[in-house]
Amino acid sequence: ASADLFYPLNESGALAYVARDANLRAILGGDPSGWEISEVGDGNINFVFILKGPSSCLVLKQALPYIRCIGESWPLGLERTHFEAAALKQFARFCPQYVPTIYKDDRSMALLVEGYCAPPHVILRKGFIKAEEYPLLAEHVADVLSKALFFTSLLSCDTSAHRQLTAEFCENVQMRMVTEQVVFTEPYVLSRNNRWTTPQLDNEVMDLRKDSRLKVAAAQMKAKFCERAQALIHGDLHSGSIMVTQTSTQVIDAEFAFVGPMAFDLGCYIANVMLSFFSQDGLPLSPSSSPSPSSVSPDCDPSSVDDGGNALSSSPSSRDEGSNTEISAEMSEVDDGRRVSADRRHSYKQWLVRLIECTWTIFAHKLRLLWAEHSSPSVSSCPTEKAAQGGGIKLGRGGGERGGGEGGGGGGDAYPLPVYCGVEDGDTTLAIAQDEFLRELLEDSVGFAGVEMIRRIVGIAHVEDFECIDDVEIRAGCELRALRFARSNLVNRREIPTIHELVHRLSMTS
Ligand code: ADP
Ligand code: SR1
Ligand code: MG
Ligand code: MG
Ligand code: MG
């Protein structure tokens, strides 16, 4: 953004800005004097305004030259809204149903304007805290991740297009540096930014900083984060970056996007589900009520969800409404929907375990299918076809290894078809390639999940799941169990060969 043209918006400024844009004005409808606007930003970094007009609503997100939750003492460049808009536009090519539409990317004002995720959409983390179930969440997250990661990786792109994408997002360097600092480095050293529940966690934090194997593992994950240009990743895919209803899933807040390791998105998502799992034991309870019906679906057959079926079928009512007849006046006053029965909290933990298992299982299944489909010479053999119609990003002739026509066929340049899908190979070589790929992806996802969990407990940016537990002893107990689980996984990630092993270990913690 040019410093000359940039100015920070307040509510009236944001309204006037939108009113000056004919397209945006038409989307909201009516006269600007009748529009409503409010600043709703509850994230760590930016300012977010919601504008309501008679026809629809819009979201305007503006970056100021510092990190919002810290203040001007932590300056941050103004490029991030552009990269957020650019990433969401890329994801929209493959799965528009899972991202808000970008209507404006104004680099000089460091702002974007995007579609509004209307109520009943809520931030997933808030739904987790209320023990809300989302029956299509696993299917949706698996869908968006498999498509976004596949179509922006060398599994489907040619090398030239992939390098171009990598170069474009390489400029989002300041955001990567934030992650390098707050996720991978600070939690393992003395830093004024760090905080934890003290004194309860003091010994654990001291121990963590002396744990050589842990620090080596964290450094190995950091090196992968910095070195691996694998696919266009969201870069901050925690449960505060996903908005949900029972039927819809929307990925927002892609300002950390860059071409990095696929496992970082998967690990970040899994970590935040696991943080919710550990927080459930400390979150507010309503008086005990009759046991909730088990809401956990018996299995997670990926083939049953390709048509949008329920991966995680819900109980008839995932809430305990009406079952608590003796809630005191005092309790009901503070009840904002977060109080659920102990039984419900218990069954919700099982639902979260299944969510992790199903998301991974469906993701892996979809990735294999995409890879196999696009490894057929009959698919995506035209280098100029549109990515969303069946292939990744391609530049065409003069591009990657296939640019001059040699090799031919579909697929990406990492696994050229003649090598991996030749007639003499049958399905064998591709199957081995897929098995190896997914094994490494899981190992790295477990590693990234470990560092994400650790930093959310001892680093600068904590999560509401734990922060809203008022009783400090109870909160510390939950955090300690999460921290020890994360440490063990990070160090032992190579001994967790399947998602079933990971969720088994998680289940064994309670
Ligand atoms: P930050 O980068 O500061 O974390 P976010 O993009 O996460 O900002 O937005 C902050 C909050 O604004 C979100 O938690 C959500 O409540 C709201 N918000 C952001 N984008 C949308 C949207 N498209 N629709 C509805 N609410 C949104
Ligand atoms: C100062 S770090 C703030 C954190 O919030 C963002 O959402 C990212 O997770 C980042 O690490
Ligand atoms: Mg956010
Ligand atoms: Mg959309
Ligand atoms: Mg953000």
Please provide a written account of the structure:
The protein is built from 17 helices and twelve strands. Strands 1-2-3-7-6 form a five-stranded antiparallel beta sheet, with helices on both faces. A three-stranded antiparallel beta sheet has the order 8-10-11. It has a two-stranded antiparallel sheet with strand order 4-5. The chain has helices spanning 11-19, 22-28, 80-94, 124-129, 137-151, 159-170, 173-185, 202-210, 212-227, 262-279, 329-334, 342-373, 417-420, 428-458, 464-467, 472-491, 499-507; strands spanning 36-39, 47-52, 57-62, 66-67, 71-75, 102-106, 111-115, 122-123, 231-233, 242-244, 249-251, 258-260. A hairpin with a 7-residue loop joins strand 1 (36-39) and strand 2 (47-52). Mean pLDDT is 88; it is low at 290-298, 305-311, 314-334, 380-390 and 396-409. It has 510 residues and is of the alpha+beta class. Helices cover 44% and strands 9% of the residues. One magnesium ion binds at residues 96-97, 99-101.
Relevant terms:
single chain; 510 residues; 5-stranded antiparallel β-sheet; 3-stranded antiparallel β-sheet; binds 5-S-methyl-5-thio-alpha-D-ribofuranose; binds magnesium ion
Write the layout of secondary structure elements.
Elements: H1 11-19, H2 22-28, E1 36-39, E2 47-52, E3 57-62, E4 66-67, E5 71-75, H3 80-94, E6 102-106, E7 111-115, E8 122-123, H4 124-129, H5 137-151, H6 159-170, H7 173-185, H8 202-210, H9 212-227, E9 231-233, E10 242-244, E11 249-251, E12 258-260, H10 262-279, H11 329-334, H12 342-373, H13 417-420, H14 428-458, H15 464-467, H16 472-491, H17 499-507
Antiparallel strand pairs: 1-2, 2-3, 3-7, 4-5, 6-7, 8-10, 9-12, 10-11
Helix pairs in contact: 5-12, 7-9, 9-16, 10-12, 10-14, 10-16, 12-17, 14-16
The structure holds adenosine-5'-diphosphate, 5-S-methyl-5-thio-alpha-D-ribofuranose and magnesium ion (MG) (3 copies).
